[in-house]
Amino acid sequence: MPIDPSIAIGAELPTQEFSWTSSDVQLYHLGIGAGARPLDAKELRYLEDGKPQVLPTFATVVANIHATEAPKVSFPGVEIDLAKVVHGSQEVTVHQPIPSEGSARTTTRISEVWDKGKAAVIVQESTTTDLDGNPLWTARSSIFARGEGGFGGERGPSESAPLPDRSPDFEVEAPILPQQALLYRMCGDRNPLHSDPQFASAAGFPAPILHGLCTYGMVCKAAVDAALDADTSKVKGYKARFAGVVYPGETLKIRIWKETGQLLISASVLERSDSPALADVVLTLA
Questions:
Q1: Set 29, 87, 194, 211: catalytic member
Q2: Which residues form the Peroxisomal multifunctional enzyme type 2-like N-terminal domain (predicted)?
Q3: Fewer Cβ close by (within 10 Å): the C or N end of the chain?
């Protein structure tokens, strides 16, 4: 049986210890489109040698940024074909600005497994500290496994972040390079769904798709640049639900509303009649 909730829920995954450098930070920022305005001093803060500022979304890739093999969906009680899996949601909360270089330790457990009928949703929660035990960030993510539901589990909650009934305070268009997925995969996500046309076709897509976490990072950067004076230290937390497929070469249309203590955000694909890309996006201010 691919999913056994009695084993999966509460299971702890192997602890990860890892290190990163300012070059890793620069690579990640390039992977989500930084540097498109190479004469803009604020833009170049993401790419400075030595001590670039770090987007909180870097936390989603840093532990595996040096990986060179495709990931496996193999956890206690969970064995799923990679071609059936897409990212469902992602949330990161930083407890201090992420340093431009360092070493850390992450502990992760499977917190929930939901039965959506034709699919299963597997939720992981992780805590990351420096090697002295000081908290750096916590994260919560879910993956959506097509065809793996129907095992008799609970359906799970439905959470949403309604958008204000007024015009957005900021609107941004973020072009996606045709080679964006090939560049972003250098940050450690070598899933062939994002690079191999035959693998993508077998998974039901007409072409390789952009990594959901690339869209996630691009939207966060756009919001920080537009609404927070390009200052990553103003971000406490950031979460989103992956609402649709995005392809390299398309354009993200990002709308941002300023609310007390947070930004509410929507992201859609401009070329496909504003087809949703991310939904329920909330950036919490520090």
A1: 194
A2: 18-147
A3: N
